[in-house]
Amino acid sequence: MAAPYAFCYSTVMRSESVQYRIVGRDAASIGRSIERGVVRGELEAGEAIPSVRALARELGVSPSTVASAYRDLRHRGILVSHDRSRTVVAHRSPLAVRLAPELPDDCVDLASGNPDPLLLPDLGPALAAVGPVHRLYGDEPSVEALLELGRTDLVDDGIPADHLAVVGGALDGIERILEVHCRVGDRIAVEDPCYVGSIDLIRTLGLHPVPVPIDDAGPQPDALEEALADGVQALLLVPRAQNPTGAALTPERAAQLRDLLADHPEVVVIEDDHASWVSGTHHQRVSSDRQHWAVVRSVAKSLGPDLRVALLSGDAATVTRVLGRQRLGTGWVSHLLQRLAATVWRDALRDGTLREAAATYASRRDAVIDALAVHGIEAHGRSGLNVWIPVAEEVPVVQGLAARGWGVQAGEPFRLQAPPAIRVTSAALAPSQAAAFARDLAEVLDHRLGTRRG
Description:
Strand content: 15-25%
Oligomer: single chain
CATH topology of the largest domain: Aspartate Aminotransferase, domain 2
Strand order of the largest sheet: 7-14-13-12-11-8-9-10
CATH architecture of the largest domain: 3-Layer(aba) Sandwich
Number of strands: 18
Number of helices: 15
Radius of gyration: 23 Å
CATH superfamily of the largest domain: Type I PLP-dependent aspartate aminotransferase-like (Major domain)
Helix content: 40-55%
Distance between the termini: 46 Å
CATH class of the largest domain: Alpha Beta
């Protein structure tokens, strides 16, 4: 048996070279060895691993064995291929240990993707109004007051609301839909770039994400047509406030997508409306009037992330299956949370909190984009809480901005095949700070990369 492969590497984050040994005689054991190194932190994000032929030669196995291990690790988001000969450890951490980016204490946090706490409704009066009423096993899973608000809201957007379920947040609803409609190995069309939680969820379920490039108006029709022709079992898209790019479907783009999907009635279409009322634009529907469809509308960005509540509307079979699957697990979403969400939602509609938040987020997005335009820097953000800024290289930009007191998110965790970019959470940036941020980013692009356009 050949000796296990060892390689040395060093980064700016380490003061000395570290050695990690990859071992294994088959694809599964080689993959486990690499993943173990990542989980333990002995293989760091961005570090190159050996080429297929080099590792095969050292381990005494066939190149196809190593290629199979690398392919599985890429599907699961542990490795990323930058070109034909260079594969590196992904910046997306393994699911069990994935945490929010660590920022220096003196950094302005533009990386978290959180709403501004000052724009969220006050929970105090609603908590007092809900009162301590116990619900028991066998009660209806959903609170009617929440369902009534949801029906009115969805119908106002032209979305059928004949069949509803309450789930524990947007990702919980998406997971349950995928579980009841898809099997291990199925291919799921997703926007590229896409929310990292959705990518991780799809891979964890044993499904394969199929990237569909997007622009400011949503998924590009030609790309979706190609994915549909190649055979996908489901499409997951964000109709507005797309994370990370801020894209939002236009009426024209939504109509194009509906026309394409009409030729593929077997495809399950899921819309993740995670920012809902504070996205700053109307919901342009794509998924209804199909055999299987669902819209998941979360309250997290609008009413508060700790309210783990979302409404799921869909065809009768999908909603029935989701409710059945829910009963086998959590059973129901806490009635206390549901009643609290309904109370906060109703009060926020009455006092204009949601309207004010949407307008404030829009002004902050526009301020960032306008300030960057002064320096000739391209940026995207038609809706939602984030701005997406293409760059030639992500790490130098993230590091350069951190040195100037700005914490931003590298785009790699969100990307499948899309080019490099950074995500800036504009929700946390006051308009008065936008000019300073844009100026510092322009300096980083000029001084760290030598050219603003790569």
